[in-house]
Amino acid sequence: MPSSLAHGLCFSLGPMPLFIAGFLFTAGPRWLHLRPVSARPLLAPVMVLACGWIVALAGFHLHPAVAGAGVTLVAAALSALSLRYARLVSSSQEPDRRHPIGLGLACLVMALCLFAAAIALFFGNMAWLRAAVRAGLWGGVVSLFVIVSHRMLPFIGESGWKWLDRRWPSWTFWLLLSVPMVQAWIAVAGIGFASAAWAHWLVVLHMGCAGVLSIFLAGRWIGSPARRQPLVAMLHVAFCWWGLALLLECISWLPAISAQRSAAIGLAGLHALTMGYLGGTLLAMATRVSSSHNGRSQVIDSVAWVLHWILQTAIALRLLAGLWPDAAAAVLAVAALAWLIVAATWAVRHGLWQGLPRTGG
């Protein structure tokens, strides 16, 4: 099995569904004005999901069918969690359920793409697998993060154009969400569409508009009082990577660029999206949740800031490795080491807090 596909499948649809499931069943009930959800009924599907990835990781080195069996377990577990969340949404009387419903649909897309990936592994069709991974990343994970960002980050919902906000209050939400939706569609069924020159220009225009808007929305909040809050500052940096990722993707789609250069720029944009936007948001939110649930008065402390900046270094090095192929081998190793330091330090530090009494009783 190609290592790049194994890497993409693990990083896009591996830890993210677990983080997403934890978020859905804590923030979801609050958004829907429902009672808190007990964690005990979620234990079985979460354990199946985690065990499924252990089987899949072994299968990547043994046989694609073994990997397919593991991914099937993951898909079934995520489907069970998604169904439980769908029942939660349907039981709510909250009039505005736009964001919760969107989260449920994104989870459904992830589950379907995981089933598609499992089928591709059973048949040994790497082209199908590549399409399933890309569709699951854009249509599932990225869509969900965009929806949550729009709900939680003030600098996304307020566009600054009052006349447009009055005529179409949710235009920024739909424009930003259209990016992962279009990219997921291209991954699954738009190969022929994307081969035409006019289609390339259409994608360039779409990605360019969304990228410029994102940079504008993020730029307006530089120096604002709200950004002085550490958590908001971290999420703001992550959203800046989203804007840069869209601009890099836009450039990679320009018809005038050679195929080799386009692939390099596209790879840099992909990692600005995954490591920068998704990884940065994950680090900030997981740190906040873990710290506050364990009674820590200072949610973002000096250690969290050090990990944040090591992560930014890892992202910059990974983009440099993509854009500078001659130095890719050395730079990529340092970027991977920096990512490992962040992940391992966070896991050990916060893992030691789990299961202990809250600080201060």
User: Pairing-aware structural class of the strands and helices?
Assistant: mainly alpha
Query: What is the total domain count?
Result: 2
Tally of DSSP β-strands? 0
Low-pLDDT stretches are: none
Strand residue percentage = under 5%
Helical proportion, percent range: over 70%
**What average pLDDT do the residues reach?**
89
Shape: globular
Q: Count of helices? A: 15
Distance between the termini: 50 Å
Query: What is Rg?
Result: 20 Å
Order of helices and strands: HHHHHHHHHHHHHHH
Largest sheet: none
Could you characterize what this model shows?
The chain is mostly helical. The protein folds into 2 domains: 1-152, no CATH class; 162-352, no CATH class. It contains 15 helices and no strands. It has helices at residues 3-13, 15-31, 43-62, 64-90, 98-123, 126-152, 154-157, 162-167, 171-189, 191-194, 197-219, 230-252, 259-293, 302-323, 328-351. Helix 2 (15-31) packs antiparallel against helix 5 (98-123). It starts with a helix and ends in a 10-residue tail after the last helix.
Provide a short characterization of the protein structure.
The chain is mainly α and 361 residues long.
Features:
single chain, 361 residues, mainly alpha, globular
Which SSEs are present, and which pair or pack?
Elements: H1 3-13, H2 15-31, H3 43-62, H4 64-90, H5 98-123, H6 126-152, H7 154-157, H8 162-167, H9 171-189, H10 191-194, H11 197-219, H12 230-252, H13 259-293, H14 302-323, H15 328-351
